[in-house]
Amino acid sequence: MQQAINVAKFGGTSVANYDVIKNCASIVINNQNTKVVVVSAAAGITNHLVSLANTALTSEQITEVVEKIRIIEFKILNELKQPNEVDDKLFALLDELDALARHEELNFRDDLKDDLMSMGERMSSLLVAAILREMGCAAINFDARKVMRTDSTFTEAVPNVRAIRDLSEQLLAPEIKDSVVVTQGFVGADDDGRTTTLGRGGSDFTAALLAEALNASTCEIWTDVIGVYTTDPRITDNARPLPELSFEEAAEMATFGAKVLHPATMEPALRQNINVFVGSSKEPEKGGTWIRRNCDYEPSFRAITRRREQVLVTVKTPKMMYAQGFLERVFKIIAKHKLSVDLVTTSEIAVSFTLDNPANSISERINKETLTELSTICEVSVERHLDVVTVVGNNMHSAAGVSSKVFAAISDFNLRMICFGANVHNLSFVVSEKASGDIVKVLHKTLFEE
Ligand code: ADP
Ligand code: ASP
Ligand code: MG
């Protein structure tokens, strides 16, 4: 019988320094099935790279930021037992990073930005592989760009699932026979071999895609919390970890703002029926959340999520009443400007919709050009400083008393827009960003603490 394969992903805080990387290495070594290790950049590095990529900085300012990155990487390097095994490679990556950061066209060219953004993961994978080796594990560092084929939408590239499977069979499967392969999350390459990235938080997605490509039976997401919680534990101390979740619930939570999973992570898991585990790399003994196709228990209320920085656009035209194709024209303009629409409500003469942060929120949500173009066909108004709060659960449309319980809990708050999801797993509210934290707390109290 073929050995079951596990893909383990470690996030930024899990690979932030030598000591925490050692925890990760122990987790890898303790599971014989772990054949692929996907790593994020060390905590803080990607944010530094984003600031280099998107801000016009003076040469001194660039030196300062690059120095901050160097310090984080050198601290890890210097704790290695045999730093000279990898130091040349790390120096070369840092030189490449420095040159890219000073490239004249960096701020205007997304392809250069992605080259630069990939450096964090390329450095951490080098160091994590070295630490695994010094702990006795036959680990190699593998360039994810050999297998993670994407389109050329730099900064938010779309993976080519078919090509990833074929390339993984050819190039990755032979490597995992004798070694543990450490590779970069978040990073890919297009058909021309140019470096791309999958959007912020994309390493979870990489792990799930590689798990799918290798027919893995499990995918572990090791992070800084002991699983997926009833709500973001940063919003309320009363949040508690969930032992299990269904694919649909997890996908819904990720889409509606639970940062612990990149929104697309569940797609490959669902296609290939891969069980996904979420746990803490610092406290692996505390267990975590198993996400699987079917759960023993499917409660009406499972969790509450919040997605920040939403933009609500209302387009209005008296002509809409009879105008066929008006919505199509509006959405065509939105699509042309690469914005994605989330929640929608309509009335006789108006349509309101929210625009989400693109997964990689380094670009503006709605720009002047989009507004100008929309204004040629209708009246447009834009509201900002809004969040979306979502209750995730099961059979929310049909179970008696579900919505009344939710509405009663938050009757004191002003709800700008209310949407039942097109599936049975969510009920969302657009609310002011000032009130969203309290709304989550009140809902959590009613739904999970009483
Ligand atoms: P990593 O760097 O490991 O990918 P992230 O910061 O991307 O980690 O995701 C982990 C964080 O997600 C947690 O620290 C937590 O604050 C946040 N989070 C938001 N919603 C949830 C939730 N429902 N359950 C657990 N964590 C959540
Ligand atoms: N390093 C990337 C980020 O910070 C990807 C990831 O960590 O998942 O967004
Ligand atoms: Mg993350």
How would you summarize the topology of this molecule?
Layout: E1 6-10, H1 18-30, E2 34-39, H2 45-54, H3 59-79, H4 87-101, H5 110-117, H6 119-134, E3 139-142, H7 161-172, E4 180-184, E5 187-189, E6 195-197, H8 203-213, E7 218-223, E8 244-246, H9 247-255, H10 266-272, E9 275-280, E10 288-292, E11 303-316, H11 326-336, E12 341-346, E13 350-355, H12 368-375, E14 379-392, H13 402-409, E15 417-420, E16 426-432, H14 436-449
Parallel strand pairs: 1-2, 1-7, 2-4, 3-4, 7-9, 8-10
Antiparallel strand pairs: 5-6, 9-10, 11-13, 11-14, 12-13, 14-16, 15-16
Bound molecules: adenosine-5'-diphosphate (ADP), aspartic acid and magnesium ion.
Give the names of the bound compounds: adenosine-5'-diphosphate, aspartic acid, magnesium ion
- CATH structural architecture of the largest domain: 3-Layer(aba) Sandwich
What is the helix/strand order? EHEHHHHHEHEEEHEEHHEEEHEEHEHEEH
The proportion of strand residues reads 15-25%
SS-based structural class? alpha/beta
> For the CA atoms, what is the radius of gyration?
23 Å
Number of domains: 2
Quickly count the helices. Answer: 14
Low-confidence stretches: none
Name the overall outline.
globular
What percentage of residues falls in helices of 4 or more residues?
Answer: 25-40%
In CATH, what is the class of the largest domain? Alpha Beta
In the CATH hierarchy, the third-tier topology of the largest domain is known as: Carbamate kinase
The total of beta strands comes to 16
Taking the alpha carbons of the first and last residues, their distance comes to 48 Å
CATH superfamily of the largest domain: Acetylglutamate kinase-like
Characterize the biggest β-sheet: 8 strands, mixed
Catalytic activity: L-aspartate + ATP = 4-phospho-L-aspartate + ADP
GO molecular function: aspartate kinase activity; ATP binding
Pfam families: AA_kinase, ACT_9
Family: Belongs to the aspartokinase family.
